[in-house]
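Entry 14. Structure prediction run on the chain below.
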Amino acid sequence: MNQTNKAGRPAARLSVNLEHGRISYLEQGEGEPLVLLHGINGNASSWEEQIGALSPSMRVIAWDAPGYGNSDVAGDDLTDLARAAIAFIKQVSAAPVTLIGHSMGGLVAMKVAILEPALIKRLVLSCTHPGHALDRNGEADDRYKRRLDELSNLPLEVYGERRAKGMLPAGTADDVYKRVAEIAAESRLEGVSAAAWAIQTADLKPELARIQAQTLVITCDQDSVAPLAKAKPLLASIPDVRHVQLSGLGHAPYLEDSHRFNAAISDFLASP
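Output returned:
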């Protein structure tokens, strides 16, 4: 089955079977592999603008994280998600990949780079942070408990609209708001629950210095979910790191202004 992005090109909808179960994904293009890991309110379709723009020169692969799309749940620890991503990358590419992770996907991407540095050629971290470092024997904070309650009890359309409102700044174009809401409305409770707990309990700060790949950190000045303040440990501790801040954008820059977001990635990939 194919999904057509806004550029009019079809992306193949595929799946692979891993030890924990199935991972579904979108793929398009040929050449150097680029793997995209979405955020907690996303899925593979979040990256439709990047698939269309980058696939003419690269092989672009966007997964549905465990518990999202048609992918099976793989656990509720960041290491569980990272090991699923490592197995996925090894299945879909024989060569080291450029790995892009947004928000929750950024935490997974960092853990992959820490556990299997040889898999990662370059790393792009979008609107992300090193985790909230809560005790696994404790409870999730009120924000995440409220999110899971809403996903359990609200119509999915309403859940999606609330997530879009929280991600996007005032004045966002209606079509962007609608698309972010549509994607969030496709969320599955088991996926969001596991991912939320993984984010809550992760603490990557002590491990960031182990990241060997050249890394680009993208922040947005209207992002209230993962602002620059939360990204500062990444900028302080990742050895080979660069930073780009995109003005006027919130927590979905890949859709809010895909041209600037894609340009930041392309410039990074073209740099020495």
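The beta strands are 2-4, 10-17, 22-28, 33-37, 59-63, 97-102, 120-126, 214-220, 241-246.
Filed with the rest of this week's runs.
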